[in-house]
Model the fold of this input.
Amino acid sequence: MQRLIVITVMFFAWGAQAHKPSFSDGEFKSLESAWQIENIATSIVLYHQVTCDSGHLWLEFDSIGDEDLFVQLGVPVIDRLSYYRPSVAILAPGLPTLTETVPFDVPDGLGGVVYHSGPVETPEDFYEPFSQTESWILLETTKRIQESGTGYVVAWDPSGMTGKLWVAVGTVEDFSDVAPTDFSSWLEQTQAYHETGPYSDADVTEVTCRPQAPSGSSENAASDANGDAASGCQTAHHDTRPSLLFLVMMLVAATAFGRQRRLSRSTRMRQNRA
Done:
């Protein structure tokens, strides 16, 4: 109980610097399962672990029109993610038709804009005092949503690598609906996500996934015909050691070659004696 009181006091002391956190837990990976943003003005952050089965993070919002949508994209400060550069797209009615190719289907009637963090060499450092975690902010933008209707924020890694990313929206801090017990859970989940504190010994190897084509495309059809899932994974570090079959084949070849040399030598000796 005492620990919970301390955590609650700490959170409210720094609450003005914090987004209300949520965690994807492998969900919200498609249009149909998008995470619902209740109010685009309220400051929230959604933490996501990118896997081959959950390569995209979808957030859904409803706009009354003529209002701003603030979006941040970042990754936790973890050494193996220092060069991780995901992208984010804003899809909404009234935005220009999206001409750039993206690895998902854009809903009918929506335009969009895509932001890439690949060119970012020096991300902005961000320290969150409550959870004592650090992040790299890769980009932030404010987009004017002119028309009313439903829109989406989608984040993914264009290189097809697994990893971690987070998306934050909104600028108004509001914790009025938060229970005191939420703070302890947030602290543990946030530190586990950032692999810090008691979770700093995490041993994770990221992998590269097969390219994910938009659903219904010829690439997916070819993949399905071959019995391969489009979201399958391959390790990023290729094993260069020779396979057992290769070694056996080399041994057989070497044995045959040696036997042939011995036969040739015996033939030449018989011919010389003759």
Observations:
- The radius of gyration is 27 Å.
- DSSP finds four helices and 13 strands in the chain.
- The helical segments are 2-14, 180-194, 218-225, 244-273.
